[in-house]
Specification:
Blueprint (H helix, E strand, L loop, with lengths): L1 H22 L1 H4 L2 E2 L4 E2 L3 E2 L6 E4 L4 E2 L3 E5 L4 E4 L4 E2 L4 E4 L2 E4 L4 E2 L4 E3 L1 E3 L13 E3 L2 E3 L4 E2 L4 E2 L4 E2 L4 E2 L4 E2 L2 E2 L3 E4 L4 E5 L7
Parallel strand pairs: 1-4, 2-5, 3-6, 4-7, 5-8, 6-9, 7-10, 8-11, 9-12, 10-15, 11-16, 12-17, 15-18, 16-19, 17-20, 18-21, 19-22
Antiparallel strand pairs: 13-14, 22-23
Length: about 190
C-alpha cells in the first residue's frame, strides 16, 4: 500500500509541476514542445539566454541550468534529463533527439581562465566552446562533458567518464579522460 501511495504522490507532483511550467513557460523557455513533463523545480541560478525544449522532454527533480545572456540550451524531442543534472551554457549546449542523461551528469561549455598567476582566477573570465550531444545517445551516471566535448549520434558515455574532446558517432567511451573502447555497430574494439 505504501508503494502505491508513493507512486500516486509522484504522479500528482509531476502533473502539478508540468502544469506550472506550461502555464508560465514564457518566463523560462523560448520554446516548449508538446508532451513535456517536469518532476520538480528547475533551478536557474543565472538566466538570460535561450532555453528551448522539444516535444516529450522529461525533466527530473534537482536540475540546475545556467544559461547566460547570449547563450542557448537546446534539448531535442524525447530527451530524458535525470535527477541532479547540472548544465552550464555560456555559449551553447545542444542535446539531440531521444538522448538519455542519467542522474548527476554535468555539462559545461565553459571553463575559467587561470593563466595569469598575478591575478585572481575569479577576475580572469572564462573561455567557451559549444558542447553537443547527438541523437540517440546515452550518458551514464555521474559523467561530465566539459568545454570542447561532444558526441556524435548513437554514442554511449560510461558512468563517471569525463569527456573533453569530440567523439565520432556510434562509439562507446569510458574513463577519465574518456577513451573509445568499442564501436556499437560491430562491438569490436578499435
Amino acid at each position: 500500500m505504501r508503494a502505491l501511495m508513493g507512486w500516486f504522490i509522484r504522479k500528482i507532483r509531476t502533473m502539478l509541476w508540468t502544469l506550472f511550467y506550461y502555464t508560465f513557460s514564457r518566463l523560462f523557455f523560448v520554446g516548449l514542445g508538446h508532451g513535456c513533463r517536469f518532476e520538480g523545480w528547475v533551478e536557474f541560478p543565472l538566466r538570460g539566454g535561450k532555453v528551448m525544449l522539444g516535444d516529450r522532454v522529461y525533466v527530473c527533480r534537482r536540475t540546475t541550468w545556467t544559461v547566460l545572456d547570449g547563450a542557448t540550451l537546446s534539448l531535442g524531442s524525447g530527451v530524458f534529463i535525470g535527477p541532479g543534472i547540472v548544465m552550464s551554457a555560456h555559449r551553447a549546449i545542444r542535446v539531440g533527439n531521444d538522448s538519455l542523461l542519467a542522474e548527476y551528469v554535468s555539462i559545461y561549455d565553459n571553463e575559467h581562465i587561470w593563466s595569469d598567476i598575478h591575478k585572481p582566477i575569479a577576475e580572469q573570465g572564462y573561455a567557451t566552446s559549444p558542447c553537443s550531444i547527438g541523437n540517440g545517445c546515452w550518458i551514464g551516471s555521474g559523467s561530465k562533458i566539459l568545454m570542447g566535448g561532444s558526441l556524435g549520434d548513437n554514442c554511449i558515455l560510461g558512468a563517471g567518464a569525463v569527456l573533453k574532446k569530440p567523439l565520432p558517432a556510434g562509439v562507446v567511451a569510458v574513463g577519465v579522460p574518456a577513451m573509445v573502447i568499442r564501436f556499437r555497430d560491430d562491438g569490436k574494439t578499435r
